[in-house]
Amino acid sequence: MKFAVLLFLALVALCIAAPEKPKLYTTKYDNVDVDSILTNARILSNYIKCLLDDGPCTPDGRELKKTLPDALQTGCEKCNEKQKTTSEKVIRHLMKERPRDWDKLVKKYDPNGQFKKRYDELVAKQQEGTTTKA
């Protein structure tokens, strides 16, 4: 009996001491076809305008705009794997194909350059990977 009480107290202590996992971002928009957005200049421009407060936002654009500052701040720790992969794909695309828009987004969401280095390294790693495969 004493052992059971001791075991119960130990489990309670572990639950209390264990760090709480961060609440993940909504998965509601995880199945959006990002490739079709990235290859359609008009749609991509509309998303960028939304993020820059230069145009209206779709519901998924509003959600992205709401989550983006926190995702940058936390290194996307509340993202699931699909969201991380998709985010990296979008960032690489913007940096390579739309550098002016990327610079505007960085200026708005990372004015001190606090997070930009992480994404520069991400693109550099990806480029190294394609160079070594060739």
From TrEMBL:
It comes from the Eukaryota. InterPro entries: A10/PebIII, OS_D_A10/PebIII_sf. Residues 1-17 form the signal peptide. Keywords: Signal. This is Chemosensory protein.
